[in-house]
């Protein structure tokens, strides 16, 4: 793994790469309120071992990337899509396979529409285009995040405890939550963060709606991966997304929630590797 800071018009992004730069590039985009650590190192290394040059990075307001005014970030989803392209530019990558989870999947859809010439394939995990009539998040999620306002974001242990509790509530029933692993990752996230409270800015980002209304126009090979027990973006969202994007393939994770459990890695990594084969798209 190699760390590299990338600067775009005064905004810094912390990036890390795995594998041989001569291999096809896979850019991993994490979801809201989560830094690059949640694309776990062994997950990234397995993709690299399969012949991919893997890049993960901290979005704005998380990890070691630039933070903005709390409560008034002033950037849009278009900016975040363009950030990804700038990172590819910094690595001299003309076209890449883009993999996004949750909010990262929203950014990935926008990239496919805004910069199709830079995209080889997209893989969309636990995400949606939020078309009308799709089911809302479960009430337990609303209640959990409502309590976030009570957290002392300067108290590292409280923030770590909150993060572990969050991943527990997002998990499905198929795999027991590895609390020790979650706590180690949450601790690593807190220790490398510029300011943990700033993760809350991700709830304030505008600008996705015009693009998500156009997902039927996506013209690059698409893979959708979704758990049947996702409590924040329910499974019908994944089904609808796969039906909307022309030619998209759907991989269903039975009993999985809004998460990347190690028990699913064989399926997820295998699907992404197959999807990103030269001339990719098939699953």
Automatic annotation (TrEMBL):
<dbReference type="InterPro" id="IPR029058">
    <property type="entry name" value="AB_hydrolase_fold"/>
</dbReference>
<dbReference type="GO" id="GO:0004806">
    <property type="term" value="F:triacylglycerol lipase activity"/>
</dbReference>
<dbReference type="GO" id="GO:0046503">
    <property type="term" value="P:glycerolipid catabolic process"/>
</dbReference>
<dbReference type="InterPro" id="IPR000073">
    <property type="entry name" value="AB_hydrolase_1"/>
</dbReference>
<feature type="domain" description="AB hydrolase-1">
    <location>
        <begin position="24"/>
        <end position="259"/>
    </location>
</feature>
<protein>
    <submittedName>
        <fullName>Alpha/beta hydrolase</fullName>
    </submittedName>
</protein>
<dbReference type="InterPro" id="IPR050471">
    <property type="entry name" value="AB_hydrolase"/>
</dbReference>
<keyword id="KW-0378">Hydrolase</keyword>
<dbReference type="Pfam" id="PF00561">
    <property type="entry name" value="Abhydrolase_1"/>
</dbReference>
